[in-house]
Write a structure and sequence with these properties.
By secondary structure, this protein is of the alpha/beta class. It has one domain: Rossmann fold, CATH 3.40.50. 38% of the residues lie in helices and 17% in strands. The chain contains 13 helices and eleven strands. The chain has helices spanning 5-10, 31-40, 96-104, 116-131, 158-167, 189-201, 213-222, 229-238, 268-273, 276-280, 287-296, 302-312, 317-326, and strands at residues 17-21, 46-51, 74-75, 80-83, 108-111, 135-141, 174-179, 205-210, 243-247, 252-256, 262-267. Strand 6 (135-141), helix 5 and strand 7 (174-179) form a beta-alpha-beta unit. Helix 4 (116-131) crosses helix 5 and helix 7 runs antiparallel to helix 8. The longest helix has 16 residues, at 116-131. The chain is globular and about 60 Å long.
């Protein structure tokens, strides 16, 4: 998809778009600048959503939630559903998408990752057809979706890789948005810049937008309802914050600058073509199969982290990272 988002919309080729936070439940917050961008282009029919997988501080149960574990969900396909502000997991956890639903007063899309890439592809393909979606944009808060796998700070590659592999295989134009420029504390800025240039060199760069004052205000208000460090830090940057800040209870450092306010748009298929992690798991049938493949590639994923947290009976990043260090291990 070399055609820009603007061209697709202005030529009338997009009547309805879906914008999904792909890296975890909190990434639904990162969808808001893209949502406003599409609206500014005259596309008023935009669905928002995210994956049904929260961090341990929100949901102590390891791994993503299945649609069967969510109350008040309207199933569109085997892995895609619509939820509202009243939706909960069967044990009472409020998904970030449900929180944003309450703030925006609109239904939100949720995606179940438990059936691996194949399950997400099947479910998204069916949902796209049933809902009349012409364009899907997956937004990652921070940018670790760009990772190759050898980055020292990479710690949550699983959800991103599943969603990138799935978006690259659906039959409507698909785009990856990278928001926050390292705000998750995983990839260094030099690594992000190099990867963006690599995608651009094969024709995968589709444009970029910065935060407007209205975007900043919307994010500020939404962040009172949705918890996401990576997706909120750009608000601080837009208000002049520059330099290092700590996240994850001080276990990670993020360098904020005006770059943090930008969303870069990339052709999902082009990015997938040079992404070893997403390519390695493209045919997986379960999240555990995908996780095992990434483990064999030397990666300790967010799923591994959550099962360790459950074993230790802790939801503290600091405590879990400290435990890993005592065992001579590293949460990269």
């Amino acid at each position: 998809m070399r055609t820009s988002i603007e061209s697709l919309i202005k030529r009338g080729r997009v009547k309805r778009a879906l914008v999904i936070g792909v890296g975890g439940g909190g990434d639904v917050l990162s969808t808001l600048p893209t949502y406003r961008y599409l609206r500014s282009l005259g596309l008023n029919d935009v669905l928002l959503g995210g994956v049904a997988w929260e961090r341990v501080v929100v949901d102590p149960k390891p791994g993503p939630r299945s649609l069967d574990e969510i109350t008040g969900v309207k199933k569109i396909s085997e892995t895609v559903g619509l939820i509202g502000k009243e939706s909960r997991t069967i044990d009472g956890v409020v998904l970030q998408a449900a929180r944003l639903s309450g703030f925006l007063r609109r239904r939100m899309v949720v995606i179940d990752l438990n059936k691996g890439v194949r399950g997400v592809v099947r479910g998204l393909s069916e949902a796209v057809e049933k809902l009349g979606i012409d364009l899907v944009i997956g937004v990652d808060g921070g940018g670790d979706i760009l990772a190759k796998g050898d980055e020292k700070g990479l710690s949550s590659p699983l959800a991103d890789s599943i969603m990138l592999a799935a978006l690259a295989q659906i039959n409507v134009p698909s785009v990856i948005g990278v928001f926050g420029f390292g705000s998750d504390g995983e990839l260094r800025q030099e690594e992000l810049l190099r990867r963006l240039s690599e995608v651009a060199s094969i024709g995968g760069y589709l444009g970029a937008i910065g935060l407007s004052p209205d975007d900043v205000e919307l994010l500020r208000r939404a962040s009172k309802h949705v918890f996401s460090e990576a997706s909120f830090l750009p608000v601080l940057a837009a208000n002049g914050k520059i330099g290092e800040v700590s996240i994850r209870e001080g276990t990670r450092r993020v360098f904020l600058s005006m770059f943090s306010t930008i969303t870069f748009y990339l052709d999902a298929k082009k990015l997938f073509s040079i992404s070893p992690l997403a390519r390695a798991i493209r045919d997986t049938r379960s999240i555990f199969e995908a996780n095992k493949i990434l483990n064999k590639m030397g990666l300790f994923t967010e799923l591994d982290f959550e099962y360790l947290a459950s074993k230790l009976g802790s939801t503290s990043y600091r405590e879990i990272v400290k435990y890993l260090k005592t065992k001579g291990l590293k949460h990269r």
